[in-house]
Amino acid sequence: MKDDDLIKFEDQVAIVTGAGRGIGRAIALRFANEGARVACVSRTEQNAKKIAGEINALRANSAKPYAVDIADHAAVQKIGAQILADFGRADILINNAGVTRDALAMRMSLEDWDRVLNTNLRGAFSFSQAIIRAMTKQRSGRIISISSVIGLMGNAGQTNYAASKAGLIGLTKSLARELASRNITVNAVAPGFVITDMTVGLSDEIKNTIHAKIPLGRTGTPEDIAAA
To answer: What topology does CATH give the domain 13-227?
Structure first.
């Protein structure tokens, strides 16, 4: 990393949902290493405090932890307001929080369908809505949502996950049109197979099948996504 990269985001505030592990953790650390102050959002207080502690050990007073179930719209609005009160602004929002509840469509419970859509898609909408007004007043901001190639291609046994990630792309395109005139950019990143807590439990057979389809010959890492 170049020396000037270390201050790329100096004095900027980055909000990262799902920051407690996997891709979100890597993104939060990357922002901190490049000078940003980071609001670390996780479903559990333990995970939020852990990643915030890691960041503060690297750069004192650079991160704060926030615990919220991102599927709870009202709770997200409160946390968003608290983050803005604590940091005074929001420059970057990373909508990363996500869950899976895999099953064939004929066997999928409505509870599992709702949990995935409410977390992955509605959660991204809720957090974006909570932060947009502040970005509009600043006349600057960056919103980035972590989608998935599954949202583009589909995948058997993941109708809920695929729908949520495809929905994120539609949400991104619409928000981009709404907010461009306010100097707020909205984008999505659609990773392929990445080794995280959600994927590490897959069988070797499934992993080998996936590897065979990747031109690079290896799976992605959370750090690959953070670097993007």
So the answer is: Rossmann fold (3.40.50)
Q: Helices 159-179 and 123-138, interaxial angle, to 10°?
A: 10
> How many other C-beta atoms lie within 10 A of the C-beta of residue 137?
11
Element (H, E) at 17: strand 13-17
Number of neighbours of residue 163 by Cβ within 10 angstroms? 18
Is beta strand 13-17 parallel, antiparallel or unpaired with respect to 184-189?
Answer: unpaired
Task: Write out the two tokens for 164.
Answer: 């949520």
Which alpha helices (H) appear in 88-185, and where do they start and end?
110-117, 123-138, 150-153, 159-179
The candidate with the shortest Cα–Cα distance to 95, out of 199, 167, 193, is 167
What count of other Cβ atoms lies within 10 Å of the Cβ of residue 181? Answer: 9
Is 80 exceeded by the pLDDT of residue 227? no
Is 161 catalytic? The answer is: yes
The one catalytic residue in 9, 113, 127, 161 is 161
- Residue 64, sorted as left (phi over 0), alpha (psi -120 to 50) or beta, turns out to be beta
Where are the chain's structural domains? 13-227
Tokens, residue 83? 């983050």
Reported as a single tens digit per residue, the pLDDT across 168-180 is 999 999 999 999 9
